[in-house]
């Protein structure tokens, strides 16, 4: 028993070898064009979000009606909206809003999904069946409709959007962790015969987590842009973040109201969304290539 | 195979029932009393009590769910709060526009997405391939509302072509089509990119298989190999995704309908949400959910029918 | 004088891996006459599959023929256009692959795939019914039961052995001058193997097809081939008449291969194997490639790669047979006991009973 336990410990420890693995993984990531782009977008967004007050030229809520509906120019780099507010500043603060919705939502989804999937896989039987049916039902709705219905009930707000998005994403993570538990359980029955008994739970966690990290990271990278797009869409419909909070979706909605007067708000908010989506999606794909090349699909010729 | 079909249908039924139950119990999660929403906060308490009894709001939840379901199956989805019109009527009026929109978008996805990826994959790593890949990737970044807004700016607002509002009427098919174009494109764009990339990956995988190598060793023309063998094998897994796509399209339709003011299911639900018209929201969500479930089922079944390995088994069972 | 069907001279095939060119086949030469079966034998990674791909012009995108000549009935295949290669494939030179379970398209019927093959070489000639008849005839000639029904079957409805027979039927139907069979029996059991080999034999007898039979199975080679090439690390280390090779193997590698083959007629305590592993193609040793594993290796072997020399009726690539190479031991010692070489290597006394044959 002590031999088995110590080998398990050795695997679990964050050894210097493991840190090196992480660093070399990062290097491999940045070496790829889509990885480099993705990382720069992600880092850029985080920087903008954290240092928005320092970077943004104007106060995003500062109104200046005489200067409304300006196009890009020298005083306002990207122009102004219907209340004369600087678009660039609103976009920059918008980054903050997007990340503050998307990241916690995904985090919540990951945590809940992991726990639920673990429970389903570990206990099996009725709990498992019930969970599967619930997850299937949640996934039976298009995410938007689900979100709509829930926001209708809960009332539109930034916090509620977070919750709603988290709920929509939970089934993904529940599935992944459940499948992982089952896979590990297969291996475990051999060892359990050697009376590992009490270590069951521990070994599941310790063997499970390393296997699950790769697909999990990839899912997270792919879900974050998805969460941003969903939130922007809901806010556009007026069911999410409420104006004047400058979510990109709110900017789109304001722009829509005034589309015949000035197209700039829509154009720049769209650009922001597109770049963010593209960058984060590419980051997800680059991660997938680095962590599990098998999933990447075949390519013509190998060039490195 | 038949057993599988039956099980699948049963599962679908279960999901739909659960869906409907959730929707039916929506009522109880609304903050406040649904009756006071209709009658106003200062309504006569006796009237409120009577309305509550009529709407069965005091009955146990299971009874309410059962009532809702049995009514729904018979086509009675209640009356809306504003005009007391039968909700089913409202839905039937709005549904065709949404379905037509979704189908049009799906057609666009197939008619544009497939050639786009074929064009690039035929010449791997060439400029054509790179351009095709770049286009696909950029299209993916366009959710329906962004695409819709940008199209709105470009065509009706700036260039003054194509209408920006409404769906037109069925009596004027050309006009109806004119009203359909921009919304359908907006809805399709994101999926075109996604399908193009998916198909490309699938085709590349098939190009590397043993049986393609066999065909090549027989001297079969590369063109035939590509358009006959590769395409057929690569499309099969894509069909299943398209089915899910149809469901997603139905979900995304709401944005497009709002932007272009199309009178479909999406705007119906959207307006109802704004007006707190909960029977309409209930019914709308239910109908959309059911359509989504059936789209998924259709996709799953069609996938299994197209794959000859399964089809033959089904045939055998019939003998 | 019969015209040689397939003539390969000094063929070198490289792959581009991680920016470098690695030779998977290096300096291989042979000729195959009509109706002759040439065996190619060697362990995994010796370049057999690359050779077959090169012959058919089916190298992957990062592969290229660096050097050498391939002649099919006098026509040079190296440098032929892609379209010309396509015309030749199937009709002039065809291939049978190793794994019949994946070699046929699962979403099309057998019949439609074979008709496609026919059409590729007889475009427009013959109606669908005629083509179908030809396919049925081909299927029946390889012994597939109920060929008329089978034509409309999907590949997964046939067993592995039947699918392999379909592959050979296609070759029969197209009547190529040369056929490359890459491990055609490796995934089949012994009875099926015999049937497939019998079919190949029919091909060469009835159609004068020149066959290159690639296998790692010495039994198959011994049974079916007229001549044989032994490959190691992309090089031809010994070649010649098959009977002579099995009776008097010259090259140490050939000797080791033959001795290591398990046999029912000899009783041994242990299965012998050749010590060491096949070198990675990107990290080949200098000098003779087999030297690190050869129990007869001397300094000259590690220093310089031997050339291909005629020894009796065979060609051998080994310094031991080159009187000018500086190799010191007596050649006679090499051919006397094959097992001895292996026993010496494994360094422990094994009970070996050398059968008198």
Walk me through the structure.
Chain A is mainly alpha-helical. Chain A contains 11 helices and no strands. Chain A has a single domain (18-58, 84-303), classed as MetI-like fold (Orthogonal Bundle). In chain A, α1 packs parallel to α9 and α9 runs antiparallel to α11 (264-291). The model of chain A is unreliable at 1-15 and 295-304 (pLDDT under 50). Chain B has 2 domains: 2-73; 94-307, MetI-like (MetI-like fold). Chain B is an all-alpha fold and 319 residues long. In chain B, α1 (2-24) packs across α4 and α5 (87-121) runs parallel beside α12 (278-306). Chain C is α/β, with parallel strands linked by helices. Chain C starts with 5 loop residues before the first strand and ends in an 11-residue tail after the last helix. The interface between A and B is large, with 42 and 55 residues.
Task: Please outline the helices and strands.
The complex is a heterotrimer of chains A (304), B (319) and C (357).
Chain A: H1 2-12, H2 16-31, H3 33-50, H4 52-55, H5 87-123, H6 125-139, H7 143-154, H8 158-192, H9 199-236, H10 248-257, H11 264-291
Helix pairs in contact in A: 1-9, 2-3, 3-5, 3-11, 5-6, 5-8, 5-9, 6-8, 7-8, 8-9, 9-10, 9-11, 10-11
Chain B: H1 2-24, H2 34-39, H3 45-54, H4 61-73, H5 87-121, H6 127-140, H7 144-159, H8 173-207, H9 210-217, H10 222-259, H11 265-274, H12 278-306, H13 308-318
Helix pairs in contact in B: 1-4, 1-12, 5-6, 5-8, 5-10, 5-12, 6-8, 7-8, 7-10, 8-10, 10-11, 10-12, 11-12
Chain C: E1 6-17, E2 20-32, E3 37-41, H1 48-56, E4 63-72, E5 75-76, H2 82-88, E6 93-96, H3 110-121, H4 128-141, H5 147-150, H6 160-174, E7 178-182, H7 190-207, E8 210-215, H8 218-224, E9 227-232, E10 235-241, H9 242-247, H10 252-260, H11 299-303, E11 309-311, E12 314-316, H12 331-336, H13 338-346
Parallel strand pairs in C: 3-8, 3-9, 6-7, 7-8
Antiparallel strand pairs in C: 1-2, 1-4, 4-5, 9-10, 10-12, 11-12
Helix pairs in contact in C: 3-4, 3-6, 4-6, 6-7, 10-13
Strand composition percent of chain B? under 5%
Oligomer: heterotrimer
Report the CATH C-level class of the largest domain in chain B. Mainly Alpha
| Shape designation of chain A | globular
CATH architecture assignment of the largest domain in chain B: Orthogonal Bundle
The description of the largest β-sheet of chain B is:
none
**CATH structural architecture of chain A:** Orthogonal Bundle
Number of helices of chain B: 13
- Tell me about the largest β-sheet of chain A: none
Task: Please report the distance between the alpha carbons of the first and last residues of chain A.
Answer: 45 Å
> So what's the CATH class of chain A?
Mainly Alpha
CATH-defined fold name of the largest domain in chain B: MetI-like fold
The share of residues in helices of chain A is over 70%
Radius of gyration of chain B: 24 Å
Indicate the radius of gyration of chain A in whole angstroms. Answer: 23 Å
Calculate the mean pLDDT score of chain B and round it: 80
* Uncertain ranges of chain B: none
The helix/strand series of chain A, from N terminus to C terminus, equals: HHHHHHHHHHH
Number of strands of chain A: 0
């Amino acid at each position: 028993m002590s031999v088995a336990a110590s080998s398990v410990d050795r695997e679990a420890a964050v050894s210097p070898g493991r840190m090196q693995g992480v660093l070399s993984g990062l290097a491999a990531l940045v070496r790829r064009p889509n990885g480099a782009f993705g990382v720069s977008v992600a880092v850029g967004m985080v920087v903008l979000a954290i240092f928005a007050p320092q970077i943004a030229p104007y106060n995003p809520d500062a109104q200046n009606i005489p200067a409304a509906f300006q196009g890009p120019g020298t005083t306002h780099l990207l122009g102004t909206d219907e209340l004369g507010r600087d678009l660039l500043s609103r976009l920059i603060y918008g980054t903050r809003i997007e990340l503050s919705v998307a990241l916690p939502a995904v985090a919540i989804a990951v945590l809940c999904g992991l726990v639920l999937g673990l429970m389903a896989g570990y206990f099996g039987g009725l709990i498992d069946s019930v969970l599967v049916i619930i997850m299937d039902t949640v996934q039976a709705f298009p995410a938007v409709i689900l979100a709509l219905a829930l926001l209708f009930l809960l009332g539109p707000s930034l916090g509620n959007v977070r919750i709603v998005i988290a709920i929509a994403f939970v089934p993904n993570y529940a599935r992944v962790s459940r499948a992982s538990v089952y896979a590990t359980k297969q291996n475990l029955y051999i060892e359990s015969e050697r009376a590992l008994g009490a270590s069951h739970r521990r070994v599941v966690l310790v063997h499970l987590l390393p296997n699950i990290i790769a697909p999990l990271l990839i899912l997270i990278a792919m879900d974050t842009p998805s969460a941003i797009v969903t939130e922007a869409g809901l806010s556009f419909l007026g069911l999410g973040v409420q104006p004047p909070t400058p979510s990109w979706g709110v900017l789109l909605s304001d722009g829509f109201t005034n589309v015949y007067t000035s197209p700039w708000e829509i154009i720049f908010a769209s650009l922001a969304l597109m770049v963010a989506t593209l960058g984060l999606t590419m980051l997800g794909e680059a991660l997938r290539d680095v962590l599990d090349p098998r999933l990447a699909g075949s390519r013509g010729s190998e060039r490195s | 195979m038949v057993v599988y079909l039956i099980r699948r249908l049963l599962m679908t039924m279960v999901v739909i029932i659960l869906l409907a139950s959730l929707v039916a119990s929506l009522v109880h999660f609304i903050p406040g009393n649904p009756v006071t929403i209709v009658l106003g906060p200062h309504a006569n308490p006796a009237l409120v009590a009577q309305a509550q009894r009529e709407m069965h709001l005091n009955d146990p939840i299971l009874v309410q769910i059962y009532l809702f379901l049995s009514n729904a199956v018979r086509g009675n989805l209640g009356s809306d709060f504003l005009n007391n019109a039968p909700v089913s009527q409202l839905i039937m009026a709005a549904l065709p526009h949404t379905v037509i929109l979704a189908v049009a978008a799906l057609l666009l996805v197939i008619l544009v997405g497939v050639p786009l990826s074929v064009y690039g994959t035929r010449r791997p790593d060439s400029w054509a391939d790179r351009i095709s890949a770049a286009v696909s990737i950029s299209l993916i970044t366009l959710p329906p509302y962004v695409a819709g807004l940008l199209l709105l700016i470009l065509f009706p607002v700036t260039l003054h072509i194509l209408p920006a509002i409404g769906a037109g009427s069925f009596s004027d098919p050309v006009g109806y089509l004119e009203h359909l174009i921009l919304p359908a494109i907006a809805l399709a764009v994101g999926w075109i990119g996604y399908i193009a990339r998916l198909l490309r990956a699938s085709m590349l995988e098939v190009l590397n298989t043993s049986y393609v190598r066999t065909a090549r060793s027989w001297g079969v023309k590369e063109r035939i190999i590509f358009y006959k063998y590769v395409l057929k094998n690569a499309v099969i897994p894509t069909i299943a995704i398209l089915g899910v796509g149809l469901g997603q399209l139905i979900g995304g339709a709401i944005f497009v309908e709002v932007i272009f003011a199309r009178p479909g299911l999406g705007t119906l639900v959207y307006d109802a949400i704004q007006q707190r018209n909960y029977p309409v929201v209930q019914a709308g969500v239910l109908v959309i959910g059911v359509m989504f479930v059936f789209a998924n089922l259709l996709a799953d079944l069609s996938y299994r029918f197209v794959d000859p390995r399964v089809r033959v088994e089904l045939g055998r069972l019939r003998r | 004088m019969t015209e040689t069907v397939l003539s390969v001279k000094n063929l070198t095939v490289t792959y581009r891996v991680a920016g470098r060119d690695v030779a998977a086949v290096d300096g291989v030469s042979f000729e195959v006459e009509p109706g002759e079966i040439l065996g190619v034998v060697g362990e995994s990674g010796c370049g057999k599959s690359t050779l077959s791909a090169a012959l058919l012009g089916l190298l992957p995108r990062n592969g290229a023929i660096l050097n050498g000549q391939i002649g099919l009935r006098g026509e040079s295949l190296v440098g032929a256009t892609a379209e010309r290669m396509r015309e030749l494939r199937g009709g002039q030179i065809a291939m049978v692959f190793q794994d019949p379970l994946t070699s046929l398209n699962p979403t099309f019927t057998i019949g439609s795939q074979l008709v496609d093959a026919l059409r590729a070489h007889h475009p427009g000639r013959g109606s669908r019914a005629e083509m179908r008849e030809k396919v049925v005839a081909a299927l029946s000639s390889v012994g597939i039961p109920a060929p008329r029904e089978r034509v409309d079957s999907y590949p997964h409805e046939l067993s592995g052995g039947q699918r392999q027979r379909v592959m050979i039927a296609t070759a029969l139907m197209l009547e190529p001058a040369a056929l490359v069979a890459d491990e055609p029996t490796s995934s089949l059991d012994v009875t099926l193997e015999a049937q497939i080999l019998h079919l190949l034999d029919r091909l060469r007898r009835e159609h004068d097809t020149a066959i290159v039979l690639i296998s790692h199975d010495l039994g198959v080679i011994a049974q079916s081939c007229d001549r044989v090439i032994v490959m190691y690390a992309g090089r031809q280390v010994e070649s010649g008449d098959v009977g002579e090779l099995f009776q008097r193997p010259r090259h140490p590698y050939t000797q080791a291969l033959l001795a290591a083959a398990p046999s029912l007629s000899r009783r041994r305590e242990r299965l012998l194997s050749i010590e060491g592993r096949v070198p990675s193609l990107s990290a080949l040793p200098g000098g003779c490639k087999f030297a690190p594993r050869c129990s007869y290796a001397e300094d000259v072997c590690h220093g310089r790669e031997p050339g291909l020399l005629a020894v009796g009726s065979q060609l051998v690539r080994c310094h031991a047979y080159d009187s000018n190479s500086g190799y010191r031991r007596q050649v006679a010692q090499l051919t006397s006991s094959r097992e001895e070489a292996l026993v010496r290597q494994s360094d422990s006394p094994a009970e070996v009973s050398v059968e008198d044959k």
